[in-house]
Specification:
The chain is α+β, with helices and mostly antiparallel strands. The protein has one domain: 60s Ribosomal Protein L30, Chain: A, CATH 3.30.1330. It contains four helices and four strands; from the N terminus they run βααβααββ. The longest helix is centred in the first third of the chain and has 25 residues. The relative contact order is 0.30.
Amino acid sequence: MDVFNLVIIFDRLPDMRLSVNGLYKLSHWGTRSRIVAPAKEEAFYLAKEALSKCDYWKAPEKARIHYEFYSKTRSVKDIEGGLIPACKPWVDGLVRAGALKSDSGWHLWIGRGELRFADHNQTRLIIEAME
């Protein structure tokens, strides 16, 4: 089986107001939507740009998504309850762009999450086709 990856790079870490710990503070739908909608749109356009450069990618029936977070500070960051859930609007944007078939558990598996110290903030979503 050939494995193909699609990498989407964001020049920042996800908005922590969308983490599991941050969502309870954003209980009003209007407040959440002002944060979620631009994140989905950003991911949509980044995915469309990436898809235009790789003619081999077709939204796979099953995919695994890996998360790589690069932080310029060494402050404590919660990966499974903070950073990964805060990426949900980005994943929704990838689905809308056609990079993923769906974000349901039948089509998308969560892979690894890594946090690395770097001289810049960045998030990489690596989509691995599992077909």
